[in-house]
Design goal:
The protein is 61% helix and 6% strand. It has 7 helices and 2 strands. A two-stranded antiparallel sheet has the order 1-2. Strand 1 and strand 2 (111-115) form a beta hairpin. Helix 2 packs across helix 6. It starts with 22 loop residues before the first helix and ends in a 13-residue tail after the last helix.
Length: 176
């Protein structure tokens, strides 16, 4: 058994030894670990800026997604965010309990998420904090690296959709 090794894109001959796989080489080449580590750092960065508003970046993303796609169904919102419906429902509950969103009945069994006035107010306040977080990160990366990161992430998502027949495509993805 061999494992692909990364950043240079070359195939590696990481043979499974009698005592097990070369886990160090696997960790260096694992896209899942690299993305998770990066995601954790990005989450902490944005959460630090959004803390004064009382939101986390996942909650901000939900509010912004609802605001930009209103009135999209929960299924559409889940697809847009590349998460499953049960995760979306679980993440919406605190926002609903805080009075920031409401769910209105749509056609058939569809539910349409919408921001309340309190949700719109919170999103306005959070947008300034988000912009500061975004701009500090963009300033650190610079325009060329920021563009390259976005392009690579878009390509990675496209590749994963090709490998996952059940993955739904982004719905109305804003262009980067």
């Amino acid at each position: 058994m061999s494992y692909p090794l990364p950043p240079d894109g070359h195939q590696a001959d990481l043979q499974v030894q009698q005592d097990g796989p070369d886990v160090d080489a696997m960790a260096r080449g694992c896209f899942g670990l690299a993305v998770r580590r990066t995601s954790n750092l990005i989450t902490r960065h944005y959460n630090a800026h959004l803390a004064d508003v009382g939101l986390e970046v996942t909650q901000f993303s939900l509010l912004a997604g609802i605001a930009s796609r209103n009135p999209a169904s929960l299924g559409d919102l889940a697809s847009f965010l590349s998460i499953d419906r049960s995760t979306l429902t679980r993440n919406l509950k605190p926002l609903q309990a805080a009075g920031l969103i409401e769910l209105a009945p749509g056609a058939g069994r569809r539910q349409l998420p919408a921001l309340t006035e309190a949700g719109r107010s919170t999103l306005r306040k959070a947008s300034a904090a988000w912009a500061t977080a975004q701009n500090t990160l963009l300033g650190e990366l610079g325009p060329d690296d920021a563009k390259a990161v976005r392009a690579s992430l878009n390509r990675l998502r496209d590749a994963l959709r090709q490998l996952s027949p059940n993955a739904s495509p982004d719905v109305a993805t804003p262009s980067d």
